[in-house]
Amino acid sequence: MRRLLLALPFALLPLAIAHAAEKHDHDHEHGSLGAHEHGVARLNAALDGQTLELELESPAMNLVGFEHAASTDADKAKVAAVRAQLEKPLALFSLPPAAGCVVAQQELESPLFGDKPEDHDEDHDKAKDADGHEHHHEHSEIHAHYQFTCATPGALKSLDLAGVFKTFPATQKIQVQLISPSGQQGVEATSKAASLKF
């Protein structure tokens, strides 16, 4: 199964690796691929004509500070607050007003938002450790997918991620795949180098 998952298109690769890692035993959770690394998020950005697509994937730990299902009122409030911040992508990604970008569609997914994880394995939930205790170990991810329509895409000279780092300080770096008319580039953004050129 692992090999099949890794054959998926690049865009699904981080998701596939996370699923493959989940299916593996607990000792392999920090594989060499580093699919789920606290402090590290991934962003795919593509500008095609007037359409800008942004896809942010992050361990929940970076955004809400925990990965377990929200059971206390404080945890639920934190999840709701993060969801509200993610629902304002124009503020989060500081898109230049001159570009005239409006949100065409957005989609937020995470087990913390009550979404059922895909490819759910019943036996995985009931795994018991050596002492016979039920062992629930999952890496919660948050996926945010945005599509913008920009009236003046030429004004999109750069993408500023400072807002993301400021809003979610536990995020130390963002691995970015950027596809624009000038080509494709892979960049690692940090709070000190948060601006990417299109």
TrEMBL record:
**A Pfam family name for this chain?**
ZrgA
Q: What residue range is the signal peptide? A: 1-20
- Give the Basic and acidic residues compositional bias ranges: 115-140
> What keywords are annotated for this sequence in UniProt?
Signal
Outline the segment boundaries, as ranges, of region: Disordered.
112-140
The UniProt entry, under InterPro entries, shows:
ZrgA-like
Protein name in UniProt: Zinc-binding protein
Q: What organism is the protein native to?
A: Pseudomonas chlororaphis
